[in-house]
Protein 1
Amino acid sequence: MNDFLIVGGGVIGMMMARTLSDSGADVTIVDKNELCRESSWAGGGIVSPLYPWRYRAEITALASWSQGFYPKLAQELLAETGIDPEFRPGGLLMLRVADEEDALAWAEKHHRPLTRVGKDFIYQTETNIVPDKEQAIWMPEVGSIRNPRLGKALKRSLELRDNVRILEGVEVKGIREMDGHAIGVETANSVLSAGKVIVTSGAWSGQVLKGILPDLPVQPVRGQMLVYKAEPGLVDRVVMLDGRYVIPRNDGRILVGSTLEYAGFDKQTTEEAKADLMASAESILPALKDLAVEHHWCGLRPGSPDGVPFIGEVPGLKKLYINAGHFRNGLVLAPAATQLLCNQLLGQEPIIDPEPYLPEKRLQEADDGVMI
Ligand SMILES: Cc1cc2nc3c(=O)[nH]c(=O)nc-3n(C[C@H](O)[C@H](O)[C@H](O)COP(=O)(O)OP(=O)(O)OC[C@H]3O[C@@H](n4cnc5c(N)ncnc54)[C@H](O)[C@@H]3O)c2cc1C
């Protein structure tokens, strides 16, 4: 029997598996598809919440820890697997921000590097962006990660370990329990036993836990994105305008995102969204109107009411844990969110206060209507 069984191999499940395996535990990670083919693959990879001052302090706490960890993680994964997750520490430039005073106050309170910058700085930093901007908010330490490559590197890292078993194409149908304890999971034709079960099934977490937490407020929120094929240097940093963004990759490709749609588990892309994203892209980088869109895709974010994930033991069933509901910020939150649950599972001192993320507390907040 395994020590830990992880249901869902997105970035959250894979980082959980890697950290638990580092402790010497035997880990099985199960995914209904291939590892990292859902939201963690589809996302943009900005290693910051968008407009981070608009989120609760619980998001800032996780994001700040993770931001310090990502450069080291990317180096470690490259050394271990030969796959470069392409962490780019370029900075984040936010144009036309209505609540600049709130941004500055948040930065001072949380000691985050963030300043207001003027026209000279904007156009010395990014020469090709739309030429009429007088002022912006600048976060020099924000980076981005090429998330599909991060996924490949994490998967390879797990494959290289003797104490990790990867099961792909295996759908978990439910939790197997005995005497108030989780003892494993049920699949179409088998039972997989484990000492502890951890649900990291992203937008599908409510389905996996349907018999146990029927009211878990985690739901799919579709996000569509585009990528343009460009030469390196057209843009070097993540630039945002009116909630939309461009993200440069090392090979010159430029990602544009994203829509926010409540359409259930429908993973169709739409022509309207494509046209809208292209208009947003050109409003930031006018030169994109002469370049071709190479690819258009979407993913299902694990939406939770205020974006604060559920991290900890599931009330009502011992030895069953959840780490889900990271919504728009699962890539930036992943290192801290997974370390925090591993701390609980391994009896370690927590990296930050775990209390605000505990499922029992979060579910109570949902009942009380406190979540926004
Ligand atoms: C368009 C878009 C842009 C984004 N941009 C960013 C960004 O710039 N920065 C950022 O931080 N975040 C971003 N995100 C959010 C981020 O991608 C997600 O929050 C994060 O990937 C969630 O990770 P996860 O591991 O919880 O979920 P997922 O990556 O969705 O993984 C869940 C896994 O569970 C598996 N699974 C589900 N049900 C079962 C079952 N019954 N049995 C077995 N396996 C199962 C699935 O197959 C899947 O592999 C973006 C998301 C989208 C869609």
Protein 2
Amino acid sequence: MSGKVFLIGAGPGDPELMTLRALRMLREADVVVCDRLVSEEILAMHAPGARLIPVGKAPKCHTVPQDRINQILLEQARAGHRVARLKGGDPMIFGRGSEEAAFLMGHGIAVEYAPGITAAQGASCSTGVPLTHRGLATSVQYVTGHRQADKVLDLDWKRLADPDTTLVIYMGVANIGQIAMGLMTENLPGSTPVLAVGKATTPDERRLVSRLDRVAADVRAAGLAAPTLFIIGKVVSLYAERPVAELLEHAHG
Ligand SMILES: C[S@@+](CC[C@H](N)C(=O)[O-])C[C@H]1O[C@@H](n2cnc3c(N)ncnc32)[C@H](O)[C@@H]1O
């Protein structure tokens, strides 16, 4: 008889940010297939005797190809196991969770989900910078800053360059210069504040406050590396601990 796969969001790092459902599923699993962004503390919560299969990074830093990950999940479920597929953040936000679920369900395997706190939500609450704020941002967009090797980062800069929207750029460290340039070309001011947060919600969290026209140089100088995300927009002004009333006046003026 086939087992099943629990598609679990482990959150951004801090084990306290896992949901009760995520924890229950992790403890019920006898096989755990995990991403590199899942912290050791979270992994340590698996059931005694469960088998761990890391697929985030193989030797020499090559990631395990997605097709292979799909096959591992399928093989383990077909062998009758309850498989925890642990992913950083939420499995359905830049996490390929839906691709894995579609593949498994296409092969008759049952999938159950546990949503996770996204890296954006974790960084927002750990820094105190909201993603929306009355008078500063009426919407938020999660954007990938990653491009396939040899391909140009093909984003709709015009749509993204909205001064009333907060942008959260995922996987953007390598391309932050190109991203800032694309936004400024569509008239988002160079003075727009940017907050980069590395390893958010972990003991190694790093923060860098910058602005659009300087962020690439600042990130290079600080040596920020993945996993890092960027919060771009007026909400970042709240990080400077200026009185909210003054900021709102500034935003409207
Ligand atoms: C493949 S995506 C995974 C996103 C995840 N599923 C989520 O819901 O947040 C990986 C990217 O997420 C961001 N990220 C993940 N964990 C992070 C953390 N603890 N701090 C900052 N950024 C993080 C980084 O931009 C990283 O390159």
